[in-house]
């Protein structure tokens, strides 16, 4: 005869093994559902202004303001294992020193399939800044809408839903906002 502790150990071992096998099957089945989302992205305006930095009041820098038109249907990315989506708009450019920069200028967390259709005309959530403090002699920027699918169980997957058709030049910096 087995003691009550040996029986509890056997039952809990069987239960935990079954749960792990089930979670492994869920994670592996997520690779079978590869959905592709499509969208369109247009940059309505891009303005650059001179500004003072917050930390160093005697230092000047240039700040970029972007207004964009975004339309994307992300509903195909939702399945029974999708917890949420992290959607973000990023600008990719090469600065005057030849360093490639990727800057996130807008983001959103989508938790429900009902909210996965995005159709907005909006300005940036985060200002566009360069570490050098200036956008002069900067190569044109390419803008793209990217997403990260966060599952309940399994590996994070990444993708791109929209991209501008051509690179956008940075205009010369202005002194006043108009």
What secondary-structure arrangement, pairings included, does this model have?
Layout: H1 4-29, E1 38-52, E2 60-73, E3 82-94, E4 100-110, E5 117-123, E6 128-129, E7 142-151, E8 157-163
Antiparallel strand pairs: 1-2, 2-5, 2-6, 3-4, 3-7, 7-8
Fold and architecture overview:
This protein has one helix and eight strands. With 178 residues, the protein is mainly beta. The strands form two sheets. Strands 1, 2, 5 and 6 form a four-stranded antiparallel beta sheet that branches. Strand 1 (38-52) and strand 2 (60-73) form a beta hairpin. The longest helix is centred in the N-terminal third of the chain and has 26 residues, at 4-29. The protein is elongated, with a radius of gyration of 24 Å. 20% of the residues are buried.
């Amino acid at each position: 005869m087995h003691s009550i502790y040996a029986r509890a150990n056997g039952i809990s071992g069987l239960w935990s093994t079954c749960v792990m096998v089930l979670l492994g099957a869920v994670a592996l089945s997520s690779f079978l559902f590869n959905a592709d989302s499509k969208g369109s992205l247009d940059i309505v305006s891009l303005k650059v202004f001179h500004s003072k930095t917050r930390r160093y009041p005697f230092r000047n820098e240039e700040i970029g303001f972007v207004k964009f038109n975004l339309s994307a249907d992300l509903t195909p990315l939702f399945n029974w294992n999708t917890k949420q989506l992290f959607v973000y708009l990023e600008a990719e450019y090469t600065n005057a020193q030849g360093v490639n920069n990727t800057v996130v200028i807008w983001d959103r967390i989508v938790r429900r399939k009902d909210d996965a259709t995005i159709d907005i005309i909006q300005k940036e959530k985060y200002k566009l800044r360069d570490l050098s403090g200036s956008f002069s002699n900067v190569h044109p920027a390419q803008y793209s809408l990217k997403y990260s699918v966060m599952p309940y169980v399994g590996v994070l997957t990444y993708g791109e839903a929209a991209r501008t058709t051509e690179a956008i030049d940075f205009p010369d910096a202005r002194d006043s906002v108009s």
